[in-house]
Each structure stands twice: as structure tokens, then as C-alpha cells.
Amino acid sequence: MNIRLAVKKDLLDIVSLLANDKLGKLREDFQDPLPKTYDDAFDRINSDPNQELVVIVNDYDTIIGTLQLSFIPYLTYQGGIRAQIEAVRVHEKYRGQGIGQHLFEWAIERAKEKGAHLIQLTTDKKRPEAFNFYKRLGFINSHEGMKLHLL
Which domains does the chain possess? Predict the structure, then answer.
């Protein structure tokens, strides 16, 4: 297995992973070819030095998982950097094989390299299996999150 930064040709496979669950089906528009909005989003992510969209590939260079790692500079913690993990997906055929753990170990090390003092994430309350997975990795439920949808 290899973890690398995503490239444009990976986009169809990444969006396929994002759309392949009960919540993703509601919010993603997976089709081939993809709507231009995904191309535009990829370009914004790829041009931002504080964003890393990564994929994990097997020995045949097939994408089997993905996540986005964001680095957020802020004033608290004496001008610290916070790492945010989003859009974590592992292909359903590869779940339960340690792929997610491998992705997170990579993300934790990468955050340390970038000088982050903590990593945070959110998970939908409709995904209890994800919540339990994150707890097993050492994440603690320390805050209550809130959202306000604008569109």
C-alpha cells in the first residue's frame, strides 16, 4: 500500500468513494463524467498549501481509500496549527483490513511534520461505526460540534 497526494486523474475514483454510503448518496452527484464542480473543487484544494487530498492505493495502483487533511493556522495556542481530517472513506471491499488505521497513522505523522499541535475531526451521528473507530484510534469526544447549513 502507498499513500500519496491525489492527482486530477484520481478524481472519479475519489468521488465514487465519497458517494458510496447512505449519506454520501444524498449529497454527492457521482456520474461519469463528473460535474465541473468537482474539477473546480479539486483545483482549489490542490492550489492551497494548507490542504492535502490523499489517496491510499494497493499494489495494483487501485485507489482503496482517501481523506483530506487541512492545516488551520490560528491565534490560540500561541499561534498554533490545528489539523482537520475530513472526507475519510475506505472502499467497502477493503474495510476491516487496517486500511483506515494506516491512513490515520499517516495523517497523524503528517500533522506532526507540519507542526500541528492537535488533530480534530467530526463525524456524523448517523455513523456510529466511524465514531467507534475514531475512539479506538485515541480520539476523544471532548467538544460538542454544531453546524449551520447556508445552502
Answer: 2-136 (3.40.630.30)
